[in-house]
Design brief:
Layout: H1 10-21, H2 36-45, E1 51-55, H3 70-79, E2 84-88, H4 91-94, H5 98-107, E3 112-115, E4 131-135, H6 136-139, H7 143-152, E5 156-161, H8 164-172, E6 177-181, H9 193-198, E7 207-211, H10 217-225, E8 230-233, H11 235-238, H12 252-260
Parallel strand pairs: 1-2, 1-8, 2-3, 3-4, 4-5, 5-6, 6-7, 7-8
Helix pairs in contact: 3-5, 3-12
Protein name: Indole-3-glycerol phosphate synthase
GO molecular function, one term: indole-3-glycerol-phosphate synthase activity
Organism: Halobaculum gomorrense
């Protein structure tokens, strides 16, 4: 586990502590993954901004929750043009579950990212997915080993970074899918210039994803102009803020389309 956890915001430290106690799978998984870069290329060819839309019932940084069926949400996101999906499996702070991911992945034909806070190799075996998230700040010196362990199982590892130091560690670990998180896990503040400052240092061989803080189509265009191959968008699509107790929320398909059409005249 990362020895710098004391520098994390209390909410994030709580997530990390819970993650360190969560058990992994009983048996080693083997995955035939759907290609994330190919899904992005297909979206581009179709005139869509490549978007990973996130099925996120709630989070420590949003108010309210979505209680819709995860499969219905996922299908609406794909209908709105999402090139891939992210499904939260963290149960304690995001109301996620591996069961939701299993159901979503069975229902759609796009790549599905497992969004969780993995700190040990055995936790990779909890559920099959196409892509797994590895947060550089959380795993510290174990990053290279976890990248290799994920690939050995057939996963595509997406390594999340926020600083130049973390980016260097991701590249040294051989990551070819890198996400730049615009949210500082120490202060929970969002700054889109984080991506803009790191993107020029990422080699062309790497598929680069902008994460967090993309709240409107103008933000999507800004990240794309800065070099993002794709965007990971959660709250702006789920529209959890201001949701009512019944969990009806906004139109997820239309919300997704706002971003996938951000570079065309079809923006809604």
């Amino acid at each position: 586990m990362n020895t710098r956890s004391k520098d994390l915001a209390p909410a994030v430290r709580s997530i990390l502590e819970a993650a360190s106690e969560r058990s992994g799978g009983d048996e080693r998984v083997s995955v035939e993954a759907r290609s994330l870069p190919e899904a992005f290329a297909a979206a581009e060819a179709d005139g869509r901004v490549p978007v990973i839309a996130e099925v996120k019932p709630t989070s420590p940084t949003t108010d309210g929750a979505r209680r819709d069926d995860p499969v219905a949400l996922a299908e609406s996101m794909v209908e709105g043009g999402a090139a891939a999906l992210s499904v939260l499996t963290e149960p304690d702070h995001f109301d996620g579950s591996v069961e939701s991911l299993e159901r979503v992945r069975e229902a759609v034909d796009v790549p599905v990212l497992r969004k969780d806070f993995l700190v040990r190799e055995d936790q990779l075996d909890a559920v099959e997915a196409d892509v797994v998230l590895l947060i550089a700040r959380f795993v510290d010196d174990d990053l290279a080993e976890l990248v290799e362990a994920a690939r050995d199982r057939g996963f595509q590892p997406l390594v999340e970074v926020h600083t130049r130091e973390e980016l260097a560690a991701a590249l040294a670990a051989g990551a070819d899918l890198i996400g730049v998180n615009n949210r500082d896990l120490g202060k929970l503040e969002v700054d889109l210039s984080t991506f803009e400052s790191l993107a020029p240092e990422v080699p062309d061989r790497v598929t680069l994803i902008a994460e967090s803080g993309i709240a409107m189509p103008a933000d999507a265009r800004r990240m794309r102009e800065a070099g993002a191959d794709a965007l990971l968008i959660g709250s702006a699509i789920m529209d959890a803020e201001g949701d009512d107790a019944a969990g009806t929320g906004g139109d997820v398909s239309a919300n997704t389309r706002r971003f996938t059409a951000a570079e065309t005249e079809e923006e809604v």
